[in-house]
Specification:
alpha+beta, 7-stranded antiparallel β-sheet, 5-stranded antiparallel β-sheet, elongated
């Protein structure tokens, strides 16, 4: 790799120093070419070739800063999975006149990108997929050690050098963040970063976690999922709360591909595709350990102890502890509502009968049941509204529906999910008002 000082130049445009050898498909921000040094090409028709990217919008201050960010990051790297920076004039990114047509030249990695390969040849086998994932974990782990995050890992940004998955190279650091960047645009807070291959909540607009290295690790898991299935993960959870490996027939396909290692692989995806950052792998080393564990995993042991341990590991990766916690609060809240209804009945002289249905559950964070009062005799009316208990984001919300749970619910109480106080007087007052109104209609 050239020294840091050797890579920066003052050329106004790349054609002053380079000759186009081949035009390549460009991206949204730049044009791409295979080039040769102008001096070398004049002397040797077989002069060494390089990859060049030029910025399209040369008067866009933010995109100029991004190209410098990419070049500056590449100038500090020395890893076989990252192309070396050869030359750039992006150090002039702050020149607002736009006279410097910014470009970056790196070593040329011969090979197709991962998206092209999977589209043409289909998914990789299990061994190739694991080799690719371990290679990417090694690359991003190195970046994280340099206090840098890529933030745009997708199939089109991975080159299979020589067509070998284990020799993959990660390219396009245009969205990367490095600790030496002090010129981050304030608009980044309002922007969604990342890509459509896998949208991550922490990279969405207004998120303050856009520099977390765990995002890169989740992208790598998305790549592993992609090369095994041929499908993009798209988002961590769909409208039914299913993670990428739980949708349609994907889990069955993964079991077939992974065979005896399926339980370990699915447990891995359970954890790394969690919408909550804190539930994913903390660093590249932890993720590498998990991938190595998948490679060495045996079939389900014949002994029940070993089998139950594997099942427990998967349940824990799926957030079983958190789900049990959520479900517990649903039931405690239901008990509290029923207790309040009993105090109402006591005020009425215990002339009515408290009734409650069993629990209905859509997901761990969403339960409902009917709780109400029956008037005496089998032919007398009853008031038994449906109480809906749900954790929405960071809040615990109780809503009420009619007995048949028709239409839209009416929220009657909400509080922080981290500090639920079911003794709150506001909750008791809301339920008193609901029953005063409902009972007045039937008695």
């Amino acid at each position: 790799m050239a020294s840091n000082d050797d890579v920066w130049c003052d050329a106004l445009k790349w054609s002053e120093r380079w000759v186009e050898d081949e035009a390549l498909p460009g991206g949204a921000q730049g044009n791409a070419y295979i080039v040769r040094k102008r001096v070398a090409a004049a002397c040797d028709a077989n002069a060494k070739r390089f990859f060049l990217k030029e910025l399209k919008s040369n008067k866009d201050i933010e995109r100029r800063a991004r190209m410098f960010r990419e070049a500056a990051a590449l100038s500090t790297y020395a890893h076989p999975g990252i192309p070396c920076l050869v030359e750039s004039n992006a150090s002039h990114h702050a020149d607002s006149t736009g006279k410097f047509k910014l470009y970056v030249v790196t070593e040329l990695i011969e090979g197709s990108n991962l998206q092209e390969s999977i589209t043409k040849n289909g998914p990789l086998n299990f061994q190739e997929s694991m080799a690719l994932a371990l290679r990417l974990v090694d690359i991003v782990g190195y970046c994280h050690q340099q206090e840098s995050t890529h933030r745009d890992i997708k199939p089109a940004n991975i080159i299979l050098a020589g067509g070998v998955p284990a020799a993959a190279v990660l390219v396009d650091f245009g969205l990367s963040h490095h600790s030496f960047n002090c010129d981050e645009h304030a608009t980044e807070l309002e922007q969604e970063l990342g890509n459509r291959f896998l949208r991550l909540p922490e990279l969405s607009a207004m998120s303050v976690n856009k520099r977390d290295p765990r995002s890169d690790l989740t992208f790598v898991a998305g790549i592993l999922f992609y090369v095994l299935t041929g499908r993009a993960p798209a988002q961590l959870e769909d409208e039914r709360g299913r993670r990428p490996h739980q949708r349609d027939d994907v889990e069955l396909n993964l079991r077939i591909v992974a065979q005896s290692k399926a339980m370990a692989l699915l447990t891995f995806f359970d954890q790394v595709f969690s919408p909550r950052l804190e539930n994913r792998f903390g660093d590249a080393q932890a993720m590498k350990h998990a991938l190595d564990k998948i490679k060495s995993a045996d079939s389900i042991a014949s002994g029940s102890t070993e089998t139950f341990q594997k099942i427990r590991e998967r349940l824990e990766a799926q957030g079983a502890e958190e789900k049990a916690y959520q479900s517990q609060w649903m039931k405690l809240a239901g008990n509290r509502v029923e207790q309040i209804v009993r105090t109402i009945n006591a005020q009425l002289g215990d002339h009515l009968e408290v009734t409650a249905s069993g629990w209905y559950k859509e997901e761990p964070a969403h339960h409902w049941k009917n709780i109400g009062l029956d008037t005496p005799g089998t032919h007398y009316p009853r008031f038994r509204p449906c109480f809906d208990f749900q954790i929405l984001g960071s809040e615990f919300v109780i809503s009420v529906f009619d007995e048949q749970r028709q239409g839209s619910g009416r929220p009657i109480w909400r509080t922080s999910a981290d500090s639920i106080n079911l003794s709150d007087w506001a909750l008791e007052q809301s339920i008193h008002e609901i029953f005063a109104e409902g009972l007045s209609r039937i008695v």
